[in-house]
């Protein structure tokens, strides 16, 4: 049975702008009042990337920000779907959402450590902004220095941001996992008093298995098909039973203790 939280109505949005942010990333701004008013951080929208039968399967994208009647996405060009979206500069666009469960309400007794990789920073920024978090850090890993605009958007939310680049062109040189380990060793992150939310590519999520599994959440951004619980195309293996959990309805955020990754 479909959860009551799922909102399956098709919504016609209007592309307002589509801006290249370098390194294959782009910012997509869509006017879609019904979604903008309902969406909570961590939820995603299933986008029909063009008005034809191909590609048949919609692509899910986390909401980066919602304000008034506008929703924003931060997208990286990877395959055919994201490329088609990148090429869409104006016009009507077919959306379903918001889908998925929102991120949990922020706890008052823990520091929240938001760790993003690539476009995985998008829902984390929305979370920090939406709840006006006070006790939190953002740690952002990229291959190379972030685009100036993207960096300024993070700084609008907090100064407590750390950038890690693989090529060393900005911030810490190396992997975000190594940086987090250093912060823990230096007691700049107090493991027992922190909750972690991590969103990024699967290998990055896997590399964070050293964090406390009950207080670490990972956002799964793998393949999806229907987006609302019917096809099992997004299933992840549950740790507690012989069952599978659906990223689109039971996720996309799971505790590390809940799933096999
Ligand atoms: C919850 C969630 C949030 C996401 N948020 C973002 C985001 O904010 N920014 C971002 O850049 N990316 C995000 N992604 C990833 C995004 O949805 C796409 O996977 C990514 O853009 C690559 O899609 P593509 O069409 O370019 O690549 P392609 O290689 O063309 O497609 C990759 C994809 O394979 C598709 N697919 C194709 N055929 C099948 C099939 N037969 N069965 C099942 N799946 C199939 C899936 O839809 C899939 O995602 C998110 C994914 C999820 C699940
Ligand atoms: S994508 Fe179909 S069940 Fe999740």
Written description of the protein model:
- This protein is 19% helix and 33% strand.
- The protein contains 6 helices and 16 strands.
- The protein has helices at 33-38, 80-87, 121-130, 148-157, 176-185, 202-206, and strands at 10-20, 25-31, 44-48, 59-62, 65-67, 70-76, 91-99, 111-117, 136-142, 161-165, 172-173, 194-199, 216-219, 235-237, 244-246, 253-255.
- Bound molecules: flavin-adenine dinucleotide and FE2/S2 (inorganic) cluster.
The string of secondary-structure elements, in order, is: EEHEEEEHEEHEHEEHEHEEEE
Q: Distance between termini?
A: 26 Å
How would you classify the quaternary structure?
A: single chain
Overall mean pLDDT stands at 94
Which percent band covers the strand fraction? Answer: 25-35%
Query: Which ligands does the model contain, each kind named once?
Result: flavin-adenine dinucleotide, FE2/S2 (inorganic) cluster
> What is the number of helices?
6
Features:
261 residues; 7-stranded mixed sheet; binds flavin-adenine dinucleotide; binds FE2/S2 (inorganic) cluster
In a nutshell, what does this entry contain?
By secondary structure, the protein is α/β, with parallel strands linked by helices. It is built from six helices and 16 strands.
């Amino acid at each position: 049975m479909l959860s009551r939280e799922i909102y399956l109505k098709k919504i016609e949005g209007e592309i307002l702008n589509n801006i290249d942010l370098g390194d294959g990333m782009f910012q997509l701004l869509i006017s879609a009042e019904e979604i903008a008013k309902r969406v909570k951080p961590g939820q995603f929208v299933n986008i029909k990337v063009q008005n034809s039968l191909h590609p048949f399967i919609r692509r899910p994208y986390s909401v980066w920000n919602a304000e008034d009647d506008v929703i924003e996405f931060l997208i990286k060009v990877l395959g055919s779907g994201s490329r088609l979206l990148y090429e869409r500069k104006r016009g009507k666009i077919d959306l379903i959402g918001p889908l998925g469960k929102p991120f949990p309400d922020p706890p008052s007794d823990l520091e929240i450590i938001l760790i993003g990789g690539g476009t995985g920073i998008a829902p984390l920024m929305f979370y920090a902004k939406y709840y006006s978090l006070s006790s939190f850090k953002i740690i952002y890993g990229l291959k190379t220095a972030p685009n100036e605009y993207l960096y300024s958007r993070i700084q609008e939310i907090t100064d407590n941001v750390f950038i890690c680049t693989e090529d060393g062109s900005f911030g810490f040189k190396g992997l975000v996992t190594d940086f987090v380990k250093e912060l823990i060793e230096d007691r700049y992150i107090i493991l027992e008093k922190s909750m972690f939310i991590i969103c990024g590519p699967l290998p990055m999520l896997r590399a964070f298995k050293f964090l406390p599994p009950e207080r670490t959440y990972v956002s799964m951004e793998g393949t999806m098909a229907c987006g609302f619980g019917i096809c099992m195309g997004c299933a992840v293996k549950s740790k507690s039973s012989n069952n599978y959990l659906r990223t689109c309805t039971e996720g996309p955020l799971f505790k590390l203790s809940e799933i096999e990754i």
